[in-house]
Write a structure and sequence with these properties.
- By secondary structure, the chain is of the alpha+beta class.
- The protein has 2 domains: about 80 residues, Roll (Ubiquitin Conjugating Enzyme), CATH 3.10.110.10; about 130 residues, Alpha-Beta Plaits (2-Layer Sandwich), CATH 3.30.70.
- It has 7 helices and 10 strands.
- A hairpin with a 2-residue loop joins strand 5 and strand 6.
- The two termini are about 35 Å apart.
- Pfam families: RWD.
Amino acid sequence: ETHGITFRIQVSVKELLDTDVLLKLLFHLPVNYPSTPPDISVNSDQLTRAQCMDVKDKFLEQAKKHLSEPMIHDLILWIQQHLKYVIKPSAAVCNEKTTLSKGTSTEDGIWMLLLHLDHMRAKAKYVKTVQKWASDLRLTGRLMFMGKIILILLQGDRSNIKEYLILQKTFKVDVDSSGKKCKEKMISVLCETEVQSQHKRFQTFEVKEYSTLDELQKEFETAGLTTLFSEFVPPLLK
């Protein structure tokens, strides 16, 4: 495989301010792993986004010490023993609602991603998978169908946007012409940019179908994304 392997691990770390912390870890192992360290994403309902970034940075530092040898198990053991030293104890634990509210003010800001898919053979399963990923990564936006045009518009933390892209490109989300499960190879990243003040924030992730190009255009205009539509959507009709 040319994309390597991606997998999730959930780790419960005890004895942090007498509270268990559940770390949701995503590892992407490139094809030349372990000569090259894995890409790592960290999420936790008990930690702020900044704290999750601190954990990720320490993971990457440790990974560089284990190059050319299998390292995932050692990394898990290390974080279980050292998490309380990695994050600032004074603000270590917070509830999920606080974490989500702080997610809108991270140093990376809120980002937006527009993707174009060539087709969906197993549409029902594909749509369900995209909905699950968006929910797991707390991304909002639209999965849009208009004729043969398929677009995915996402908004959320930049790290979660990047994590979504890893999932989209490495998991078997569709089937080929023979019905065999396959990865998405016909995908284009049309735009990846920070959300600006004139852009409307989507509150949910929805799957929508449009009968005409005008209906699709109005969706973009309502969200303050007229320029985005004009630049990227009409060329797809040619």
